Amino acid sequence: MSSTDMAQAQPQSGRTAGVFSTLRRNVPLSIGLGMLWLVTMVLVAIFADLLRPYGITAMDLANRLATPGNVKHWLGTDELGRDVLARLIQSIRVSLVIAFSATILSAVFGTVLGFAAAKFRGWVEHLVLVLADFQAALPFLIMSLAVLAFFGSSMLLIVCLMGFYGWERYARIARGLAISASAQGYASAVVQLGATPFRVYFRHILPNVASTLIVSMTLTFPEIILMESGLSFLGLGVQPPETSLGNMVGFGREYLTRAPWIMLAPAVVIMLTTLSISLVGDWLRDKLDPTVR
Amino acid sequence: MTAPLIKADSLTRVYQLRRGLFGKPTPVRAVDGVSLSVMPGEALGIVGESGSGKSTLGRMLLGIDPGQSGTVTFEGKSMPTFGTAEWRALRAQMQLVYQDPLAALDRRLTIAAQIGEPLDIHDLLPKDERPARVEALMAAVGLRHDQADRYPHELSGGQRQRAVIARALATRPKLLVCDEPVSALDVSIQAQVVNMLCDLQEDNGIAMVFISHDLKVVRNIADRVAVMYLGRIVEEASSDVIFAAPKHPYTQALVSSVPVPGKPLVGRTILQGEPPNPANRPSGCAFHPRCPLAADICRTTVPALRTIGVQRTAACHLVEGADAPLAA
Amino acid sequence: MIRFVFTRLLRAFITILAVVTFAFVVLRMSGDPAQVMLGPDVPQDAVDAFRKAWGLDQPLWIQYLAYIRSIFTGDFGVSMRDKASALQLVLERIPATLQLTIPALVLKLLIGIPAGVYAALHRQSIIDRGVIMLSILGFTIPSFVMGLLLVLIFSVSLGLLPSGGQDTWMHGLLPTITMSIGGIGILARFSRSAMIEVMGQPYIRTASAKGLKWPDVVWQHALPNAAVPIVTIVGFMVGSLIAGAVVVESIFSWPGIGRLLVVSVANRDLAVVQCILLMIAATMVISNLIVDVLYGWLDPRLRAQTAH
Predict the structure, then answer these.
(1) Around Cβ C128, how many Cβ atoms within 10 Å?
(2) N or C: which end of chain A has fewer CB within 10 A?
(3) Distances from the Cα of A114 to the Cαs of A182, A196, B83, C15, in angstroms?
(4) Under an 8 A CB cutoff, do C7 and B21 touch?
(5) CB–CB of B255/B228 below 8 Å?
(6) Cβ neighbours of B20 in C, within 8 Å
(7) How far apart, in Å, are the Cα atoms of B252 and each of A155, B224, B235, B291, B325?
(8) Residue B158 · residue B189 · CB < 8 Å
(9) Would you call C179 an interface residue with chain A, using a CB distance cutoff of 8 Å?
(10) How far is CA A42 from the centre of its chain?
(11) Do B153 and A199 touch (CB under 8 A)?
């Protein structure tokens, strides 16, 4: 940045108009497709009840193991005659709801702890860091398995469990950014203006931290989907009659040779969804990080 | 004789410097028994090297850093503890201008929003009158009207510092503490900003404490100057007097290094030795290892700050005309 | 350097202690430990005797200390299914898991790192784009999907490789490949970005300007500096090898620790679960410790920082 008064920095055109035209110009095709896929998935999750052709436990016994392309069953049926498409739609909803809730839970939990560590320092900070180390030390899968072994699999437990995934990342980010903001930065300047701590955190530090946090969220979201799918695949996650993507893959495994579509449909959805989020998340990070520009 | 606006009495701040996880903590006296006062509308310059404690002193005056001993009185009332509601309310009367304007501004908000923020925090003007005040403030510091919607990173260094100053003035404070406000700016801009501060100070009758390591800058703006060395004031006098006839050897060395345009720089006193390390104070007078006039007494006894003339004090064993000690 | 190692050892110890405490707390929260340890169909007086023998009527913190002592003497209790010592069961299965995880780790290192480094050195080339795409696929496709797909292709359609069991070395091929693909993807990506960042540093340009031949610049300057972040990731991978094995062993019916864990969780065989949990935690902590020490050796700045 030039420091002579004579040099004028380029003024930025009105912010909202700029964002849209930038989008149209700068979004590569793959990212655009990724975003489209994600929007579709979200819509499916929201309108699942309207979209499902049949109930998830409805059995069409005359048409068991029907191949896809069927007029009555677009994606075929499984060994009990249940419509794969219907179950797929419901699974998308269940998996996405779990992943969303868990992502938000862990982001809020992690950010609050990170801010607390930065604000109170001392033993609070030590405690938070030790917990964060502990969380990072154990593979999450193993820890979840242990907890599920001890307490059994229930939907509530699974969401809460997934809600602990990755909180330490948010905590570290929030703590780091809050500390650098307060030392010589804008946060201490605003405190010095007379602002209450609440105002400092919510009006200043949080908006600044938000973009980094959001990028972090796009990274943990697909990991949570994979984690939950893995657990459900092993039979330890979402339990029947509820269905989730991993669940379906697990059940479809036995019919791999005879009816691969039972397993392939949810597998493809998992892959495309995590791929889309990863791509869009990476792209978002490059966009939001001014140092990369 | 009007009462001082702000008065500091024997302020001391010691903090513990810990080497590594298992080292012994060493106490560091950042500020050691400093007393001073500032009259309403007066500009006091505080000069010193890094490590002299001038920034810490500035923060203690505002009540940001607590002291181990000593008091600060503002308008006759003692300074509330940092973080309390009274302390926050008092901010409307006293403000701090930092060295790094980019760090002091929130990069996500326009400067107009930030200049107006104190009005929001202290709920000073009715909402519809605030934009007008922000405009007036921007004009007073020399920012253009169309720069109101800019973000900090879109402005130059000098413009950012002006924005920070405008924000500090928003509540019409009675005291402004400026901690190296122009050190991060280009030399040509420094003069502009200092002149602007000067004008603002005189027009509005704001008392100012101007902290800097650069004598040339302080000379332009300060009515009185206090020179600090390793946490203590070693000389204090009006600005003209200190520049014309400094008495303390340290002040003499500093003043002799200030170039005067048109004249060659002669008679410079070059100081020997390293800049002082507050964690490792020399015995006796802290300046003695580098003092060209050091005598035996300087090695053993800490010189007290004594009156040596009208409105003049100095802390040196070798200065004549010394009265009874002011403060030890 | 000694002080550095000491502080790291201390932290490692504290972490293990934390995991043991976690296991203790969760164990106590989930039900009567006597019941848990002995099994569900044991008469009440046996349970009472057990409680006395194990000091379960003592205050909680004494129990905690006794628990720690039993852990460190290798006594994890008895598996509910087999009535054999839990530790015994677990130890028996370790070789099987190692047969998969060690080759997988080797594959990850041998393919992932060179691929990433090569891609970084030849930016925008086909190899670079290929590596990026493959690595993204590698870590977005979950291992269970990958495993099943491989089975579909190689076992079912092509009939080349067996799909389950542990009989011949050919049985181990698909599981090993499945386990390594994700890791190859991650390592390639990380190595690539670590190299890119190092290559952008001014000292690389200086080395080249000094007249040093390009291969020497890469080997002597770029790679050692890029090694630090890469070593971190490898450390994580080593520590979480067993986690990766869990799913893969289940798919391929491979009789290793991972499969044992899944089965034990399904049966709520807490003694075995505990044992595996602690063993994994110990592995991770030790591998992180080794990584930290390696760090200190690789990067003198880190050593200097913590030395005072």
Answers:
(1) 18
(2) C
(3) 14, 19, 21, 20
(4) yes
(5) no
(6) 306-308
(7) 78, 16, 10, 11, 21
(8) yes
(9) no
(10) 12
(11) no
